[in-house]
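From: lab user (bench 3)
To: helpdesk
Subject: output format question, protein + heme C

Hello, I'm new to running complex predictions and I'm not sure whether the block I got back is the full result or only part of it. Here's what I submitted:
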Amino acid sequence: MKIRSALSMIGVLFLFAIVSACGQGGAPAGSAAAPDPDTPEGRAFLAFQYRQAVMRVAANKSAAVGAMARGEVPVDEAAFAKAVNDLHAVAGMMGEGFMPQGAPEGSRALPEIWTNWADFEAKAAALTTATQALADATRTGGFAAASPLVQSTVQNCGGCHRTYRMRTEE
Ligand code: HEC
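Helpdesk reply: Thanks, we reran it on our side. This is the complete output you should expect:
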């Protein structure tokens, strides 16, 4: 498991390396050019891009799961099970997105992540434990068994953001 996620991290970094190797075209129009991936700044930037991608997928999947649990969209057992499994997979990819450490421009990662690394990892692990329970309940009892666990599962997101993600200006 650890090795597999390390490999997936390497895969993502490799893709980013290819994209940035394509020159100025690698950076979206209007944004600053990505730093050289062979420098510490470059590696911190790639980790930032990786975790943004992972967090955005997590947001998409938890929105799909939450909408059904709240009765906002009709229950579709297959779609629910897929979103739950995807959410669990992506939860397990979060922690590695914060290594190597660093908060490049645009990042909302707070320095406490790295000064309280054990607690940060514990919060990431708590999410994975919760998504595992959700996936297990879905497999054995479908939506009916899993939906009561949805709210407490996604509370893990806010539980980490409150401490470790910079607030946006309100
Ligand atoms: C262990 C801590 C932790 C957990 C658990 C966590 N997040 Fe995050 N999340 C962060 C941090 C820190 C950032 C800021 C990262 C940065 O900007 O460098 C972030 C950023 C985000 C972002 C903004 C991404 C962007 O576009 O910049 C979204 C959306 C998000 N998280 C959704 C979620 C959802 C949904 C969950 C739960 C399913 C979740 N997160 C669980 C720590 C966590």
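A quick orientation on your result: Residues 48, 51-52, 55-56, 58-59, 62, 94, 103, 107-109, 113, 120, 123-124, 127, 154, 156-157, 160-161, 164-165 surround heme C (CB under 6 Å). Let us know if anything else is unclear.
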